[in-house]
Amino acid sequence: MVSLRIENAIVLTMVEGAGVIERGVVDIEGNTIGYVGEADQAPPADAERVIDARGCVVLPGLVNAHTHLAMTLMRGFADDMPLQKWLEEKIWPTELRLTEEDVYWGAMLGALEMLRGGVTCFNDMYHFYEATTRAAMDSGIRACPSGVLLGFLPNAEDLLRQAVEFVKQTLDEGHPRIHPMLGPHAPYTCPDSLLQQAVEYAQELNVPIHIHLAETDQEVRDSLQAHGESPIAHMESIGLFEAQVLAAHCVHVDDNDIEILARRGVGIAHCPGSNMKLASGFQPLPKLLKAGAVVGLGTDGCASNNNLDLFEEMLLAGIIHKGYSTDPTAVPAEAVLRMATVDAARSLGLGAVTGTLEAGKRADITIIDLQKPHLQPVHNIVSQLVYAARADDVRTTIVDGEIVFHEGRFTAVDEAEVVAKAQERARKLVGGQAKG
Amino acid sequence: MVSLRIENAIVLTMVEGAGVIERGVVDIEGNTIGYVGEADQAPPADAERVIDARGCVVLPGLVNAHTHLAMTLMRGFADDMPLQKWLEEKIWPTELRLTEEDVYWGAMLGALEMLRGGVTCFNDMYHFYEATTRAAMDSGIRACPSGVLLGFLPNAEDLLRQAVEFVKQTLDEGHPRIHPMLGPHAPYTCPDSLLQQAVEYAQELNVPIHIHLAETDQEVRDSLQAHGESPIAHMESIGLFEAQVLAAHCVHVDDNDIEILARRGVGIAHCPGSNMKLASGFQPLPKLLKAGAVVGLGTDGCASNNNLDLFEEMLLAGIIHKGYSTDPTAVPAEAVLRMATVDAARSLGLGAVTGTLEAGKRADITIIDLQKPHLQPVHNIVSQLVYAARADDVRTTIVDGEIVFHEGRFTAVDEAEVVAKAQERARKLVGGQAKG
User: Fold this and answer.
1) What's the whole-model pTM score?
2) Per-residue pLDDT tens for B391-405?
3) Are residues B275 and B169 in the same domain?
4) Which of B281, B379, B380 sits opposite A323 (nearest CB)?
């Protein structure tokens, strides 16, 4: 039974080598994709609902491979500051005051922002991860929630066990859009023994580990001093990559690190906006791609971005590495679009679930309206999406078969209420500085 | 007589030191700004029309300091290619086939794109500049049109005289939104003698010169070999800066060049999107700003960007120099917003006309709607505009006192016709490759 047919669209399946379907049909059966292909070969179907996508392009829902969603509440709260001052004087003291209610509404706000911008799945690491999970369930987005396990806390092992309980319970409940992970924060905040415990749990539960790796030059220098090897090499040594791992950033990686990351199939979340804004540096993305590493795109949190816009991240990934390497052929548009869809899904271990339009996968779909002055004429659809399109060009966002956002409106969420609640939480959190 | 009052808005005048007006009023009298300030001090006025800008921020119209507008027709036509191959195999052969009709509709398309994105003024250099001028008049935007004077053409001096005639005639006609310039393309395409002639005409007519300077490393190397000095130093030597000059790019400039640019008050159009995409390099923007140079933001043409979105350029200017200099305090948001407004206007010699909200200046105004998930909460309005806002957040664009775009619609232009005509011209131009 076809619950939804999308017709008359240009379709980009993002399946390797599949090219562009000029007049395509996508059929959805429940939460799953049925037929994808040329209209004239589509099976007859008496679809419950039809979307006429004439003048639009249909592509897999975008996947945000790394964020801290509820940091929307701190959007623009502290910019243009040195990193340590930013963390110590602004971010950390504010995070200490966070409540579960704050995280829920901050995550709801972020989920709506992402759904408006065609993002159907996000990978999160944050405090009060149950609240983020609830926000994902309520907003209709797909999520990979994890906590922020900080090894220096006196109760770190308890926190790990709580996280493991959360993963077990979530897997038992089997929510079709929730894919829990374990989130040890970073090698410089977690001792090796704790990371090794996390690996054991991750393997036992068959869930990935979400961690920050090699974000700053300082982190690499400290690792060399402490362990005589880079963060990546050290993680290889202690067995982290025995688990499926999503490593956020990987900015400061050398040729040996790149070889390890590619060989071990480590998922990498490239966050160009955050790397630029925090002055972390330029990831050697062209080398990583050449080595066959699995690289997805992420926004990082709103305190260092300051939005959750994967179209911006696509533009940045597509152009800053050309500028930095002085090679205008570096990181072509096709590779960038893969990083926002299929490769981001693979980086999260969700390659069988989402990231392409293929029969049998979950129906996570973004429809982009091309009938706008800044998207015409269309000479090359992939170039258009990467270099010219914006989040606001999204006409429809479908997650797990449900139309969540369509033509400017959410189908099941009161957007005005979410914005108002998030404003209220932000005002409480930072002491009345936030304006309406 | 107040023709239009904007009320209940947060107002950023962009006047040095003026700060944020939390509940402001802007009065417009014909094509001129009357009152700007706090609501409780506004003179009583029986305005013909009132815009309630509650929940919005009102700021000066954005100024695009460098583009080649009709290149919208080549958007996405040739990407991810080495520069010479891109020019020789794709751009130049296509430009040879351009007609006046092509340029008109390409420029119309670009004008609508910019007006939708809050841009009220643009500085253009392109073939068939009369067509671009006509498109500016018809679309309602403010323009600084100039030709592309290529000194190696056999009739270069005739072309210069034609350009001079165009400037004279345009000045005589006195259209309130058209500010013509002279456009010698670059030092490497124009002999010194032709540039010196252009300077004489520019001084005589009291119009600025629009030129490309120091865009690539190769250009600097060639100049050093030919003249024993950098392009900037050589332009100083031959007297170019005796005229008011807008120099696009200025990527490869050393400390001596920066001193010259600042001392001579040369307007600089920084085009970070184009510089990254074409792999031209990183402008030393932090140094230029420190030296007091007048730097505006530009998009460059759509073949190297691939849109005309000053919000994207703001984001890029605000973050890539942090990444490149490894200093997260480099190029703060306030400086970026100045580069898109007041400093861009100054760079074009239009500082008395546009770029700030002040009584007596022309009413070029952009109203941004903040009531969106990605623009809430608001902790810092300037951060929000530079790091989080997008072109689509523009609710209203006013040029020379006229509401040109409001709530998704153009008041006097048939947008669908413009898009259709531009599609048709693009199809003819590149041989049927363009899709609808």
Assistant:
1) 0.98
2) 999 999 999 999 999
3) yes
4) B281
